[in-house]
Amino acid sequence: MKRRSKVKFTQIHVSVPVRLLEDFDETIGFHHSRSKKISQLMKYHLENDGMMIGDATSRQLMAALTARDDVDDTMKTLLLQILAK
């Protein structure tokens, strides 16, 4: 029998506006874990020094786009030309 991960979990209690929670639940879908998604968001926040997409400059966003695998070569070329200015 395989051993499960030894990651320990804890429960927390947070207060959020009802409508915010309803909207959040609609975006994650019925078969997904709210706890898992919140954990992913917390991890992302910590890994990115708390910076949110809305806080990034246009230049930072364009640089991030050029690093993605799903951006085609034409778009990468255009982004790199803009970043070079």
The helix content, as a percent range, equals 40-55%
Coarse morphology: elongated
Tell me the domain tally: 2
Q: Main beta sheet, described?
A: none
State the end-to-end CA separation.
Answer: 58 Å
Give a short synopsis of this structure.
It contains four helices and no strands. With 85 residues, the chain is mostly helical.
Overview of this protein structure:
With 85 residues, the protein is mostly helical. It folds into 2 domains: 9-50; 52-85, no CATH class. 54% of the residues lie in helices and 0% in strands. It has helices at residues 18-28, 34-47, 58-66, 73-84. Helix 3 runs antiparallel to helix 4. The mean pLDDT is 86.
Defining traits:
54% helix; 4 helices; single chain; mainly alpha; 85 residues
Topology:
Elements: H1 18-28, H2 34-47, H3 58-66, H4 73-84
Helix pairs in contact: 3-4
